[in-house]
Amino acid sequence: MSIQSTFLTKSTNETLPISPNSKTTDTKRNQTSILSPFEQIALQWLVKRLPSWVNPDHLSIIGLLAMLLAGIGYFFSKGNIEFLHLVNFCLALNWFGDSLDGTLARYRNKQRPKYGFYVDHIIDTFGMLFLMVGLIMSGFISERVGLGILIVYFMLSINSYLAAYSLNVFSISFWKFSPTELRILLAIGNLALFKFEYCKLFGQKYLLYDVGGIVSIIGMSAMLIVSTIKNTKALYEKERV
Q1: DSSP assigned state of 177
Q2: Rounded CA gap, 52 and 65, in Å?
Q3: C-alpha distances in Å from residue 152, one per residue of 73, 118, 156, 236
Q4: Please, what is the end-to-end C-alpha distance for the chain in angstroms?
Q5: What is the pLDDT of residue 6?
Q6: Could you say which DSSP state residue 176 is in?
Q7: Which residues sit opposite 177 in a β-bridge?
Q8: Please, how many CA atoms are within 13 Å of residue 170, restricted to the half-sphere of its CB?
Q9: CA 20, CA 38: separation in Å to the nearest integer?
Q10: 33, 86 in Cβ contact below 8 A?
């Protein structure tokens, strides 16, 4: 939602150089999400069947264009809710491009860790922006909640990048959730919109995505706070004077 991102290869415990002075792959990537074992099986099956003319950059571009098209789909869904099917298709297409680009590079032994890390995550940044702007413009979520999600998501991403540089550990999943699980939850939410756009809580009517968005903000904020405390403590102990 790729997100998440989203993304080089998504393999568990992969390493890559982050430090500008690093000449070896010394930064561990941790992927411990719920669906990670099944995702790896699917990716390995797919990567062996891709045509030889397809390269990792093609897949990265597919992932980015899918998020742009998803945002456009959200925008048009305010006039025709059937466009939400397009959004869900694009979320699946984003997973395909976003998750497979690094896997393909490793499978063909054509890794470019620093290039891949940068391109992967700058694509994530633009992709999330496209998606949330489209969702806000659809009217299915209020501007404040949508912007709140975007801000906390970017803060969580920044925290991960700083931890990768400082601690040599890059986490792409938090509390068993990764971009894959978030895409699935978002797709389920889109299907729910066909039945009801609003829900009632405590006698008041709220947009369904406002409720889900606030829950997401609280969850991501908790992840950010816990991760910040953990990383700060680890760095303090590592560089105790």
Answers
A1: B
A2: 21
A3: 24, 20, 6, 25
A4: 41
A5: 33
A6: T
A7: 174
A8: 28
A9: 34
A10: no
Closest CA to 76 of 67, 89, 66, 85: 85
| Residue with token string 């806000």 | 136
Q: Report the distance separating Cα 222 and Cα 203, nearest Å.
A: 27
Which amino acid is it at 120? D
> Could you report the per-residue pLDDT of 31-77, keeping only the tens digit for each?
567 777 888 889 899 999 999 999 999 999 999 999 999 999 999 99
Structural domain boundaries in the chain: 14-238
CA distance 229 to 194: 41
* Range of 87-101, 110-124, 154-168, 174-188 with top mean pLDDT: 87-101
Residue type, 74: Y
The structure's pTM equals 0.82
* 14-238 placed in CATH 3.90.980.10: no
